[in-house]
């Protein structure tokens, strides 16, 4: 990170339950010989104990479409933000400039992986293998001053 005040530090990856209790952690000690993608390797390692236990993983930006396919084969449901520059993501979603705050669009692959594009202040992309990932509902959002968003 370019503006990070301390250039050296530790990376600790943690798998927590829904209450925030730490179930497992891994300290990054450098690249391994078998490493293809750091985020994917970490998630695969930290999810090994979840195989066949009907859990849902939520994570942020460190994963790919291929990782979700792999987790699905292990009966692990997953959901998280994704960088749209990753491969195998749909190109047919609404253009950013055509979206207003609160708008969304989605597409489901042949592998049943949903890619959801939602505009808040910025565009957010989500990949999910959740059963109802594309089900929508009305929510009420407010600005900091309490004004309702439409």
List the helices and strands and how they pair.
Elements: E1 12-16, E2 22-27, H1 38-46, E3 56-60, H2 65-73, E4 77-81, E5 104-108, E6 114-119, E7 123-128, E8 141-142, E9 148-149
Parallel strand pairs: 3-4
Antiparallel strand pairs: 1-2, 4-7, 5-6, 6-7, 8-9
Short synopsis of the structure:
This protein is α+β, with helices and mostly antiparallel strands and 150 residues long. It has helices at 38-46, 65-73, and strands at 12-16, 22-27, 56-60, 77-81, 104-108, 114-119, 123-128, 141-142, 148-149.
- N-end to C-end Cα span: 36 Å
Question: Would you report the number of β strands?
Answer: 9
* Amount of helix: 10-25%
Mean pLDDT: 83
Which value, in Å, is the CA radius of gyration? 18 Å
Characterize the main sheet.
5 strands, mixed
Which consecutive residue ranges, at least 5 long each, have pLDDT under 50? none
Number of helices: 2
Strand numbers in spatial order across the main sheet: 3-4-7-6-5
Strand-residue fraction?
25-35%
Classification by helices and strands: alpha+beta
Give a written overview of the molecule:
Helix content is 12%, strand content 28%. A hairpin with a 3-residue loop joins strand 6 and strand 7 (123-128). It has two helices and nine strands. Strands 3-4-7-6-5 form a five-stranded mixed beta sheet, with helices on one face. A two-stranded antiparallel sheet has the order 1-2. A two-stranded antiparallel ribbon has the order 8-9. It starts with 11 loop residues before the first strand and ends with a strand. It is an alpha+beta fold. It is globular. The protein has helices spanning 38-46, 65-73, and strands at 12-16, 22-27, 56-60, 77-81, 104-108, 114-119, 123-128, 141-142, 148-149.
